[in-house]
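Please produce the structure of this protein holding inosine 5'-triphosphate.
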Amino acid sequence: RQLVFATNNQHKTNEVRNLLSGQYEILNLGDIGCTTDIPETADSFAGNAELKSSFVAENFKLNCFADDSGLEVKALNNEPGIYSARYAGQRGDEANLNLVLQKMQGITNRKARFRTVVSLIQNGQRFLFEGAIEGTIRESATGGNGFGYDPIFQPDGYDRTFAEMDMVEKNLISHRGIAMGKLIAFLKAQAV
Ligand code: ITT
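Below is the modeled complex.
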């Protein structure tokens, strides 16, 4: 069975493929020949996730799901939030995480959370699934796995960053893992 994941992000694709391996073949935007950079102009994760999934549903006539996600840092008024992918002005994980580290210099409240909202469009109907994980922002980056802000995010209850975990361990606790778990449960409940 195939499921279309409306993303250009190869890291997200890999994480979701790992979660759904054996159950679904995941096709991302590249796999369905969608070369458009879908505009993300909404003011929330849910709104942007719906823009991405709607674009594919309308233009490709396919059921699909999309993920909009990001890092919310308490002391930075929940920035970078929906601007996570381009916080430092353009795409680039290193520049983005360095900007967070720079803004957090001297700040003792290091609380942060990762959030994901998944939008599913199924036969014209829309569904949302959310996941979040609480943690703290490290003083410096550590670890080589994952992507984005993983090297500076330490989930509560762990002494390692997401970038020091392998994909399976991160997926078990991450915002995306939680949201995808809800999507999978929803799809399973339908498959009677
Ligand atoms: P698509 O829109 O094509 O799915 P994107 O990278 O543009 O890919 P978003 O608009 O949802 O995705 O931006 C999410 C950004 O938030 C992402 O580029 C990372 O910088 C950050 N992010 C999201 N999930 C993350 C994770 O699990 N680990 C680290 N950083 C993450």
